[in-house]
């Protein structure tokens, strides 16, 4: 069910069968010349949609601005600090837990959010409020991604391009995909003798893109979306099956 | 224009003509038995939509969870602390200002957000980052509201009920409007000898509603929406006309 | 009783019959050319004095600097941030609660303090420490104020002018009252199409005053003071009558 | 001059000749069975009064609650955290500095405030806002104190008892002085093999007193008050003579 | 040079030729039954030692407690929060930068520190204070590690075991290596359908170890240490060669 | 025992007999032309070493950067803010307390750390986590110091010079001792009419030294070290003897 569509009265009843809150979290940030700034919340939103018809799931509204300062040099990128993002998502989970839903999944569309989400989840588990792991769609189907594309899934690379063609084709500037991949690296970051020195995206990619976006296709996007959606459903099944107490922090040995 | 629909490249060009960022901010919170939990972001969203086709406006994604702890006893209410909300919106405006858009309007659907938004706006103006006042739709057309309804516009009262009937009728449980208004007060809060002692909504309304929702109608909603949308457009015009320097903090006398 | 006049030993005994702590909170800020910078703590102090001879009340020392940044452009205004003020008053109440006095009233002389006081009170109630509403004298006798003056009570307007003439006439520059009211607005703030754009007092009043101060008189001040003092006494009575548990936060429905 | 007695208009003129802001800071805390809880702000207030008629001084309102958690076990003690107190005084000085008064003295009545005041002063000097040392009356006349009393000045000991007899005799319970000094230590704190283990006053004094209060007298109080007041005046003279730039932080060698 | 061995006078001269500060950062945390709790600062220390004789390097004292809460269930683990660790290292770099050394390397012995170090480095670069990337020894020689061991380098696995045998053999309990590797996973963490659910080490390894420690040897340790030390030297060379301005954050496109 | 030398398995057993954690805390800061920047952690380290062979003591790694901003104008000084230092040490004690060791001693080499350590200790005692007083070597043998030297022990004065000659003679530049004491004051700080105005060391000593370092000698250092080490052992004995509950905060009277 979608929480915000309910009134407080119908929510009272619907929440009785809900076991897992799903919180889509994205970002509004550059995705190169061809993909929309909203890419990461569009994907998060779409994956959350894939579990919305479950009675044991409450999908919360999508949080659209994330940890993206490293994209700030590119026009249109929005960001908040990791601390603010962590607080925002932590308190949102605390709220839903106050209504009795103490398992949650962050359905995440943006790699930059991961550390903050993990700190949030650690706090929530640590004080016994909730068990709230992060689900990153790109980590749920790594082999498929390898099968589909020669290059790395990347940032605004073939995987995201494919997904957007599937989910929001009207927002993809297909004629810019060639330019998007021009002179970009195969993988994220920049390393010198074991030290990571690529602080900002602009330090290692001229267009903001990583991976070859021209490899993307709607067909690949459909396949990725289906496969990853199944993984998300399986994750929710796993969470539903686990008693909450079995998910708590382990005691000192 | 809608920022998130642009790629970074097309945003670069489009932002050149943008003068005002519009940030819809709402809440996910109880609106009594008849209106959806998403009421406040649905209205914020809809009003922002009313200025989306302007080239001098960039509409940002909607921020869906706000300052609503005082509704926490009712099922489904989400909230973050005033401090976290203030940070989240302040940093979002700082980001958009970094791309050259230094006037903004918070298009706000929730009274509980107002103080935090005003603190944010004060900071942003104080350090010269941006001029970002808050526009509350219900304050833009007070006379119309008085004309349309006998009771106060309220919370989940006749004004919001009317707007929702206009904007998202499928989410309104019209058969629950009667029950929603049962035993509720005419106006917000609870005062004892000059001291406000209504800390939480539940302290002064049994259903979570203030004002008589049965007074609401789709026709009234349409009228409210049109009138307030015109006010918002007029506010944007006013901002566009003002040179940024004329909006800065005044110096010491 | 006045807490600070007691020794710890006599306080031990006196506190046994005390049910309500009274904390006068004011500000040191511009009140136009005619009223002293100390206006808001002078009034808070005087109202607290009106309940000092009650055995069931402990009056704490007056907190003299408040949330007044919006008056900063006028000479002599002092201020602290809302966060600092909130902390200062919250911790003061926590201290008095540690001695067994868990009901309190902020006797407040300054509108700018209200939001911070309400956040403090929410925290104190939320964690079960104390019930500490804010009493604003101007909200305790709104009809009387309307009866006495044609214009709004205002800031440094007729109501405060009257009170100061009653309470501290030697600090009122009566010959400046005319100048004080020159070109000032009837009511607080500045609104454009539903958006509040009067961030600082100086944005909407040239002298720092709101309302017509020449309407003020010692006689009106005496009347205001008596009437509001009675309201404060009635509020204390109400608090004394309420069992502490009946004032706690309500549970989830 | 006393700042709060001025209107903003007369303050504008008076502040032109002011060179030093004087901020009385005290505490509301146990001073044993014989002295009032307000002892520390009463003394701070009185010393500030001693420089009020200087045109080059602006006396600010007295800050009455300080860093006194270590007295919390005794009835009536109020306190805020060191961080909150530091913020409150720092921001107050920032405010007065914004009106052009960039030298200040904290006239301090309470030893527990010293560390927080010093951190505040370091910040204010470090960022170039103000030079704001702390004046502790008991450190201005150490030899006189040694001459007047056999025992240490102490806490609620002979020095404070004498001052209170001079400044607020009606609040001193002289018949309790004997009991106050019963079984109390000669000096502050408790040390074990070089480690300070006296965290709270109650850890080392049964009545809350340190030093023999029966040694106190009004005559000694008068002498102390005169001598220390002269020192404060001399400090203000010293500050007035120093160009502000000569008081700034020194550069790196 | 080692900074702490200098007096301030000799440091003044020596710092003139220093271009890069090296800050060893480790942790005190469980490394299974066979390796000492100090493993991570011992390795950090040793690698820093490898560049100590360079005149263009100042080695700072080793920071011994890091971000290790996820090992807390095992005896002896110490930790601070990520925020505290980030502050501690950030301020340390700010201090050394105040003496003119604005390039730095965190020589890091602990994976759990990485995110906090990267946030610190981002802040330091963002405000123009310093360029301070993190060097993780295990990321400087990944191929060698793959060549030397069948299993992953791991936590307290073959790579760390080898290094400790080389650097501090007396602290390795070689007779416990077998037990250490009993039932442990090949790689870090625990993933369910794309979600990381291994919050604490104890969630996925019974002994606290990851990777097979019995593969470790002193010879492998020597090889790893030499190879990685060369990489660190090469990184320092790279930093020395880069003008500071070329390392600053890039401007908006 | 030294905690970091143990594996988690041997620590489990060893910690059973441990009653007191010893945390050496120092600073890296100017000690004039003759003593090393590491003086304060070298001494802290050495004193901690003196109790390392006790089975009832766990010595933690040395924390090398402390509260030394007031020395910042001298080359090589490192520092963190008091708040950061307080957090770092508080959390470290919380960690060791989680393994059952709830008494601790900060073996402190630096006067500037004292206030932050005391705030940390107050918090740790206040919430029942641990009893963790600070041991300052110079306060454990004040009479001996007076006997040995004509001048005050000072900063980089005769006491520290003597200790360093005993503990790390190779780092002492004996030929610079004369210069070090040139024109320096006998005691710490600078006072004007009862106000402390010596914010930074450089405000009152040209070389960074206080007290006459030429009075120092290895023999005196040996005597100081032995005597103070005995005091530390005696303090540990005292702590071991005290039941933890007898060290908790006292209740309200």
What is the element layout, followed by pairings?
The structure is a homohexamer of 253-residue chains.
Chain A: H1 8-14, E1 20-25, H2 39-49, E2 57-59, H3 82-98, E3 103-108, H4 114-126, E4 134-136, H5 137-140, H6 142-148, H7 158-167, H8 177-180, E5 191-192, E6 195-196, H9 218-241
Parallel strand pairs in A: 1-2, 1-3, 3-4
Antiparallel strand pairs in A: 5-6
Helix count of chain A equals 9
CATH topology of chain A: Rossmann fold
The overall pLDDT average of chain A reads 97
Provide the CATH superfamily of chain A: Creatininase
Approximate strand percentage of chain A: 5-15%
Secondary-structure element series of chain A: HEHEHEHEHHHHEEH
CATH level 1 name of chain A = Alpha Beta
Which consecutive residue ranges of chain A, at least 5 long each, have pLDDT under 50? Answer: none
| Lateral arrangement of strands in the main beta sheet of chain A | 2-1-3-4
Oligomer: homohexamer
Which overall shape of chain A is indicated by the principal axes computed on the Cα atoms? Answer: globular
Q: How can the largest sheet of chain A be summarized?
A: 4 strands, parallel
How many individual β-strands of chain A?
6
Helix content of chain A: 25-40%
Give the termini distance of chain A in whole angstroms. Answer: 40 Å
């Amino acid at each position: 069910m979608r929480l915000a569509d309910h009134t407080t009265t119908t929510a009272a009843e619907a929440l009785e069968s809900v076991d897992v809150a799903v919180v889509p979290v994205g970002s509004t940030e550059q995705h190169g010349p061809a993909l929309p700034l909203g890419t990461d919340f569009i994907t998060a939103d779409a994956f959350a949609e894939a579990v919305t018809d479950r009675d044991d799931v409450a999908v919360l509204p999508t949080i659209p601005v994330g940890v993206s300062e490293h994209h700030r040099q590119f026009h249109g990128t929005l960001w908040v600090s990791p601390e603010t993002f962590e607080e925002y998502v932590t308190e949102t989970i605390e709220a839903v837990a106050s209504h009795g839903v103490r398992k949650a999944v962050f359905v995440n569309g943006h790699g930059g959010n991961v550390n903050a989400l993990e700190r949030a989840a650690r706090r929530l588990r640590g004080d016994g409020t909730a068990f709230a792991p992060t689900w990153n769609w790109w980590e749920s189907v790594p082999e498929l991604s390898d099968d589909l594309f020669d290059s790395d899934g990347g940032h605004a690379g073939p995987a995201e391009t494919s997904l957007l063609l599937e989910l929001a084709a009207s927002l993809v500037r297909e004629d810019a995909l060639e330019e998007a991949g021009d002179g970009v690296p195969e993988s994220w970051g920049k390393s010198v003798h074991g030290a990571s020195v690529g602080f900002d995206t602009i330090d290692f990619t001229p267009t903001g893109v990583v991976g070859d976006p021209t490899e993307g296709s709607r067909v690949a996007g459909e396949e990725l979306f289906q496969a990853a959606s199944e993984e998300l459903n399986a994750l929710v099944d796993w969470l539903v099956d686990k008693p909450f107490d079995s998910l708590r922090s382990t005691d000192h040995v």
